[in-house]
């Protein structure tokens, strides 16, 4: 998978999965717009990529702010010369029981994780269709597919990302743009460190056939495949990256 000549925008690029996606794309030759609400973090990652011989800029990017999203896409196209790939990794989460989830928590997660996906993908896709080519990879979650305690708002938002991804895939396919999503399971990121209690980690690991949390690099590798030419006939697909979590049922004798 080579990306020489491709221009990629990675949201949530200052940390976790987004940062690793940016690193891997840059190593494969893509020019990067590292986008994050944490602009200082985005600048640090962009500087790292440039120091390693890549081409990268930092973009201040609040996915829940329509004006800032539009401006970020415009900046990317102006400074790098276009847009071919979007990996939309930005998101937030909270581990909160349904009965205890406040309206404010619900609304914030929907605004960032679902509406933010809509705004970012729409702005990026409008640029991609001008050139008749694009690859969009969204980050959903296994929480979108299976009910899990403490994930009322997060699971609902990520479930919306799954359906939005499929609708986009159908509508954009004739225009040369593929749209897919990843559904990571338990991945050792900064967000998961905040969301998962010690008890959650214990129970989650017991339900994973590979008996461990995944790494951001493993998710990033899947994102690169879906963004590559090798995946040109794949669209509307939700790829789990979960160590077998979604596949598992009864596991007698595990461990």
Tell me the layout of helices and strands.
Elements: E1 7-11, H1 16-27, E2 31-36, H2 39-51, E3 56-60, H3 66-80, E4 85-88, H4 103-131, E5 134-139, H5 152-172, E6 177-184, H6 190-195, H7 198-206, H8 216-226, E7 238-241
Parallel strand pairs: 1-2, 1-4, 2-3, 4-5, 5-6, 6-7
Helix pairs in contact: 1-8, 3-4, 4-5
Task: Characterize the structure shown.
This protein has helices at 16-27, 39-51, 66-80, 103-131, 152-172, 190-195, 198-206, 216-226; strands at residues 7-11, 31-36, 56-60, 85-88, 134-139, 177-184, 238-241. It has 255 residues and is an alpha/beta fold. The protein has a seven-stranded parallel beta sheet, with helices on both faces. Helix 1 packs across helix 8, helix 3 (66-80) runs parallel beside helix 4 (103-131) and helix 4 (103-131) packs parallel to helix 5.
Structural class: alpha/beta
Largest sheet: 7 strands, parallel
Task: Please mark out the parts with pLDDT under 50 across 5 or more consecutive residues, or reply none.
Answer: none
Q: How many angstroms does the end-to-end distance come to?
A: 36 Å
Q: Give the radius of gyration.
A: 17 Å
Helix fraction? 40-55%
> Could you give the order of strands across the largest sheet?
3-2-1-4-5-6-7
- Rough shape? globular
- Number of helical segments? 8
* H-E order: EHEHEHEHEHEHHHE
């Amino acid at each position: 998978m080579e990306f020489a000549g491709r221009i990629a925008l990675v949201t949530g690029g200052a940390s976790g999965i987004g940062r690793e996606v940016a690193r891997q794309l840059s190593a494969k030759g893509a020019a990067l717009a590292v986008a994050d609400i944490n602009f200082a973090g985005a600048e640090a990652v962009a500087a790292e990529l440039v120091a390693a011989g890549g081409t990268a800029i930092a973009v201040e990017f609040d996915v829940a702010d329509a004006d800032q999203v539009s401006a970020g896409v415009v900046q990317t196209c102006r400074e790098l010369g276009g847009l071919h790939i979007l990996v939309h990794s930005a998101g937030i989460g909270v581990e909160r029981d349904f009965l205890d989830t406040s309206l404010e928590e619900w609304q914030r997660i929907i605004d960032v994780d679902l509406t933010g996906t809509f705004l970012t993908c729409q702005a990026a896709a409008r640029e991609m269709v001008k050139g008749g080519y694009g690859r969009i990879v969204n980050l959903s979650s296994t929480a979108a597919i299976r009910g899990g305690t403490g994930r009322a708002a997060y699971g609902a938002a990520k479930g919306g990302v799954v359906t939005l991804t499929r609708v986009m895939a159908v509508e954009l396919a004739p225009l040369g743009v593929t749209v897919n999503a990843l559904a990571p399971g338990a991945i050792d990121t900064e967000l998961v460190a905040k969301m998962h209690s010690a008890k959650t980690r214990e129970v989650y690991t017991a339900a994973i056939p590979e008996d461990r949390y995944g790494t951001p690099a493993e998710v990033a590798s899947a994102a690169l495949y879906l963004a590559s030419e090798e995946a040109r006939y794949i669209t509307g697909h939700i790829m789990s990256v979960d160590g077998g979590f979604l596949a598992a049922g009864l596991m007698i004798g595990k461990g």
